[in-house]
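Chapter summary example.
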Amino acid sequence: MGTRVTRYADYVANLTLVIDDDTLRRARIRALEQGTSVNAIVRDYLERFADANERALAGRRRVLGIARSRVAGTAGADRTWTRDEVYEERTRWPRS
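The structure predicted for these 96 residues follows.
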């Protein structure tokens, strides 16, 4: 069973991490410099980590939807450039 935290409306789980003292000390200092806590940093990271696959999947769905709505090889009414113009512009850029 989780612990009731006043910041949350729902119960949340406690997590125990094994981190060496020096890493935790440096993380605490950095968190203080950023006006936050190690707990908040880990929580935010885990939320992003857990949601990353869902966001990537949603992005792929959007791209596929756009791709399906286009016809390959058509110029499109709003296109103001040609393939040759794009190639010419790219060959003028300095190479790094």
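To summarize the output: The chain has one domain: 3-74.
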